[in-house]
C-alpha cells in the first residue's frame, strides 16, 4: 500500500478511510480477518456439502444436468456463467437446498443478547439473556420440510426461488442475518453450476459418506472419500481451455 501498488479492494479502502485512527491495528486486523474467515470456510463447506449430496443422492444431479446441458450444450460447449442464472432455476434451488440440508459453521448461530427485558409466548426474558438458535434442528424438522434428510432441490422451486434468504436459515435468521449472503450465495452458485456441469461425484460403497458429520474445520485432509471424474474428454478440454485463461490472467 505504501508504494501505491495494491489492487483496489475493501481492505485497502477500509485502511485508507481510517486516517483518524478510530480503529487501532488490532481492530483493523480483526475486521478484515473476520471477513476472510466468514466468507471462505462457509463457502468451502457448502461446496463439500453439494459434493456429498451429489454422491449420496444422485437422482437430483440428473435433473440439474439436464438443465445445464440444455443451456450450455450437451457436449461441453461452454461453462455456465452468472448471466445464465435466469435459465438455470434448478441450480438456484440446489444452492438453497445446500444451505438448508446441512447449515454449516454456525450450528447455533452467532449468539445475541437482549438489550432490554422481553416477553415471548408467556415466557419472560430479562435484559442480557443470550439467545442461540438450533440451525440443524430447524433444517431437519419434518414439520418444516417433507423428507428433510433427502437432498431435494425441488422443494425450493417456488415463488421465493430468487430470494436467497427465504425458505431456509443457512444465513441466519432475522436482522442479524449474514452480511455477506449476496457474495456467499453467488460464489456457491457459480461453483456448483460449473462442478455439476463438468464432473461426476461417485460414492465409494466400501467407504460411505457420513453426511451428518462432514468435518468443517479440518483443512489439510479430504473431508470424506469420494471419486471425482470428469464427465467426458470434451469437458476435460473445456476445463483446460478455460483454466488457461485463468493462468494467463494478470
Ligand atoms: C456460503 C456462504 C456463507 C454462509 C453459509 C454464511 C453464513 C452465516 C451465518 C449463519 C451467520 C450467522 C448469522 C446469525 O447468527 O444470525 C453469518 C454471519 C456473518 N457472515 Fe456469513 N455466510 C457466508 C458468507 C459470508 C461472506 C462471503 C461474508 C463476507 C465477505 C460473510 C460475513 C459474515 C459476517 C461479517 C457475519 C457476522 C454478522 C454479525 O455478527 O452480525 N459471510 N454468516
How do the helices and strands line up, and which of them pair or pack?
Blueprint: H1 10-16, H2 25-56, H3 59-72, H4 89-101, E1 112-113, E2 118-120, E3 123-125, E4 130-131, H5 135-139, H6 181-198, E5 199-202, E6 227-230, H7 233-248
Antiparallel strand pairs: 1-4, 2-3, 5-6
Residues 34-35, 38-39, 42-43, 46, 99, 104, 106, 109-110, 170-173, 176-180, 183-184, 188 line the site of protoporphyrin IX containing FE.
Organism: Exophiala sideris
Keywords: Heme, Iron, Metal-binding, Monooxygenase, Oxidoreductase
Protein name: Cytochrome P450
CATH architecture of the domain at 27-102 and 149-165 and 180-248: Orthogonal Bundle
What's the rounded overall pLDDT mean? 93
What distance lies between the first and last C-alpha atoms, to the nearest angstrom?
18 Å
CATH topology title of the domain at 27-102 and 149-165 and 180-248: Cytochrome p450
- DSSP strand tally: 6
Radius of gyration: 21 Å
Provide the list of bound ligands, each named once.
protoporphyrin IX containing FE
Q: Specify the helix fraction band.
A: 40-55%
Order of helices and strands: HHHHEEEEHHEEH
Keywords: Heme, Iron, Metal-binding, Monooxygenase, Oxidoreductase
Protein name: Cytochrome P450
Family: Belongs to the cytochrome P450 family.
Organism: Exophiala sideris
Amino acid at each position: 500500500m505504501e508504494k501505491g501498488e495494491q489492487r483496489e479492494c475493501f481492505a485497502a479502502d477500509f485502511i485508507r478511510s481510517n486516517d483518524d485512527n478510530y480503529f487501532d491495528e488490532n481492530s483493523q486486523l480483526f475486521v478484515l480477518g473476520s471477513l476472510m474467515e466468514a466468507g471462505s470456510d462457509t463457502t468451502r463447506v457448502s461446496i463439500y456439502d453439494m459434493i456429498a449430496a451429489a454422491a449420496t443422492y444422485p437422482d437430483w444431479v440428473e435433473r440439474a444436468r439436464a438443465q445445464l446441458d440444455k443451456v450450455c450444450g450437451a457436449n461441453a460447449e461452454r461453462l455456465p456463467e452468472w448471466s445464465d442464472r435466469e435459465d438455470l432455476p434448478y441450480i438456484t434451488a440446489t444452492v438453497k437446498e445446500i444451505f438448508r440440508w446441512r447449515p454449516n459453521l454456525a450450528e447455533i448461530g452467532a449468539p445475541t443478547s437482549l438489550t432490554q427485558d422481553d416477553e415471548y409466548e408467556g415466557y419472560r426474558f430479562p435484559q442480557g439473556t443470550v439467545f442461540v438458535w438450533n440451525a440443524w434442528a430447524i433444517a431437519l424438522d419434518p414439520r418444516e420440510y417433507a423428507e428433510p434428510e433427502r437432498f431435494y432441490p425441488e422443494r425450493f422451486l417456488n415463488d421465493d426461488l430468487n430470494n436467497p434468504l427465504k425458505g431456509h436459515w443457512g444465513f441466519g435468521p432475522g436482522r442479524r442475518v449474514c452480511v455477506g449472503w449476496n457474495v456467499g450465495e453467488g460464489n456457491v452458485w457459480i461453483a456448483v453450476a460449473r462442478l455439476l456441469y463438468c464432473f461426476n461425484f461417485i460414492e465409494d460403497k466400501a467407504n460411505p459418506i457420513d453426511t451428518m458429520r462432514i468435518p468443517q474445520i479440518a483443512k489439510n485432509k479430504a473431508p470424506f472419500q469420494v471419486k471425482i471424474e470428469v464427465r467426458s474428454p470434451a469437458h476435460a478440454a473445456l476445463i483446460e481451455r478455460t483454466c488457461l485463461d485463468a493462468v494467463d490472467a494478470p
